[in-house]
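Marked as duplicate of an earlier ticket. Keeping the data here for the record.
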Amino acid sequence: MIKDDISVMVQEAAARAQKAGDLPEIALPETIIERPQRAEHGDYATSLPLQLARAAQAKPLDLGATLIKHMPESAAVERLEVVPPGFVNFHLSPAWLASQVDEILEAGPAFAEVSVGNGEKVQVEFVSANPTGPLHAGNGRWAALGSTLARVLRVAGYNVQTEYYFNDAGTQIDVFARTLYARYQQLFGRDVPVPEDGYVGSYMVDLAGQAREKFGDTMLSPEGEPPPDQLGRYGMEQVMDWIRRDLSSLGVEYDNWYREQTVYDSGYFDKVMSLLREKDLVTEREGAVWFATSKLEADKDEVLVRSSGLPTYLATDVGYHYDKFIVRGFDRVIDIWGADHQGHVRPLQLATQAMGIEEGRLDIIIGQLVTLRRGDETLKLSKRSGDIVTLREVIDEVGKDACLFFFLSRSADATIDFDLDLAKQQSSENPVYYVQYAHARIAGILTTAGERLPETEDGDTALLTHEAELALIRKMLHLPELVEVMARTLEPHHLPHYAQDLATTFHDFYEKCRVVDEDNVDLSRARLKLVAAAQSVLATTLGLMGMDAPDRM
């Protein structure tokens, strides 16, 4: 990336200045290259003169001039300037910018790739909703976030595995089985109430109907007896199939599906309990088993095994992460959780550190809620309310691409206001339509050019000198830099905004620069190269979000 090249130039300039005696032999800080907020300030800037001023006992503007004096030449940089309070601004050469069109076209989708991860083995676990009902819109947000983050990390050079964790054991599964059995019995005329803590959504009635079709009345036990294990397992497997189907409809596939029961069957739960006991981090009181997190500077201890003998979510998660880090050997683990799990974060981090996992290898992203609207009407999402709005319904109403774009449009820690009516609009007000239309428009331009322009030699990008042309190239060059930022910050919500900016920049170029001009074939060929490069970068951006790049709208 040119950003990295400029960083190297600045470091070399500082080293040359020290060697020449123009800069004291002081420790040089990390070189930070930024994009100025205002275009007239250039393409890139460094604040190194400000960082050096105190140690060098010199004025930042003088230090900036010194750096420029020793800056190595570059075909990419046309002009350097020092501006108050002490920045060195870099203005890229129009000729170099134009030459990047060929580089972009040659690279294709690989244009977005950067070397950040160096093959580090990373697991991204996301959604992982209990198999007690269909996915809702909030789950769709984590699906969009997790799958996009995984794709970003892959093009940033990480070895990524995605995983869905099914909670197929524990209290909620028992409640689910009892609810399903109650609905199943009701279909045979038994006056049986749904458990007070049960799932009252209509999907449970549908599931009971499927069970009756499969088993007839063979799952009926004498009244008052617990539900047959086979019925509960059947219901859970059906819900798991729903979840897989809905995620697949969203274009989200997983490398691995993991069952909670594996933690117990493989002995990971017992292993971590023994490990924590060895470290004197387990206590027993009030009939329960506790993780003594207060010894690790936490405010309070956490329950691992309830007085009923059932492990808590935390206990299972500790065993699960033992498998992730110790057994499967991931260098880094990224969990994406809903806001209701906020209190679970610190205890799990402490547990992994107690297992010998260095701080920083576990990242937990906590996300906020999704509010669905149709105009002024707010739609409810509660799984237990009976008024559930499923992810499937949202996908069916607005389509996969709109779901992904809107779910990804805000940072994880911000709530999303998803307007279903807007997502369906076929107008520029709908950002999904606006971005995809840009790609379709390009496809139409290229088709028209093939019909109207004579066959000539390849276009000469040196002819691209119009400011709108150069602005489009600059915007395209931002993509790999953005990938690097997103990989470091784990914030893929920048992609939809970049896609909109790129589409806007392209539309502006197209309004100002005639592409298909039979009276100026050479310039047309050059601009067609630029158009094709924009199509490639836009398609790559959409692909990172899991969206389609249509040729027609």
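See parent ticket for discussion. Residues 97-116+427-544 form a domain with the Isoleucyl-tRNA Synthetase; Domain 1 fold (CATH 1.10.730.10).
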